[in-house]
Amino acid sequence: MAGIVQPRQLTLALSHEERLTRDDFLEGPANEAALSLIDRWPDWPNRIMLLIGPEGSGKSHLGVIWAEQSGARSTSAHVLTLEAVPGTLATGALVVEDLRPSGFDERAMFHLMNLARQDEAFVLMTARIPPSAFDIELRDLRSRLRAVPTVTLLPPDDMVFRGLILKFCADRQMTVDESVVTYLTNRIERSYAAVRQAVELLDMEALRLGRPVTRALAAELLRDASSDPAA
User: Fold this and answer.
1) Does some domain include residue 141?
2) Same domain as 141, residue 103
3) N or C: at which end does the chain have fewer Cβ atoms within 10 angstroms?
4) Can you spell out the DSSP letters for 27-43?
5) Widest CA span in the chain
6) Domain ranges, residue 188
7) pTM of the predicted model as reported, rounded to 2 decimal places
8) Per residue in 21-53, pLDDT tens?
9) Total domain count for the chain?
10) Which residue, of 152, 180, 214, is where some domain finishes?
């Protein structure tokens, strides 16, 4: 595992649009079960389904793909209110993003699940950890959430990991060669979040220094954990 050296000074943070179409989704063994669920809608084992995976694993991307297919609206779990529930289900399909322990209104979530079942609506939820790890006060909600069928997105395999590096670079209109991709693959933590952070840092520093993104620049910004006592 390797750490990432922070920029020596702030640079202007420009927004970069991440492409979230079906064609842009990088498929591999780590996420094929989740992608299969989206592709076979509406033939789901249950009208309420839950995607579980680490930050940046593609849960939101899959939610966007499914929303395009189903006409679903989208909301974040932490902003869902009791009064808003009927409106969120108006199209008969809803994406509920980022369900976290103690980060949502339990009454609103319970009402949502009941109304979705009553109206035969589809709901796709996303979370980083399973609801069994949540401390939920409402007993009925606790049992309902724990009974929702889940599909887990695993850490990226080699093919997806390299593909993610190229995708995040393309999203930021960065041109990189194979040596940069190979160097990052061998140096950064094997996680989606680490790829995003490393590519963003390379882009910011290349702009700040007026240099191309090369293996040499990557080597300057990344350091091996084996040589860093604090890593």
Assistant:
1) yes
2) yes
3) C
4) --TTTHHHHHHHHTTT-
5) 59
6) 157-225
7) 0.77
8) 887 788 888 899 999 999 999 999 999 999 999
9) 2
10) 152
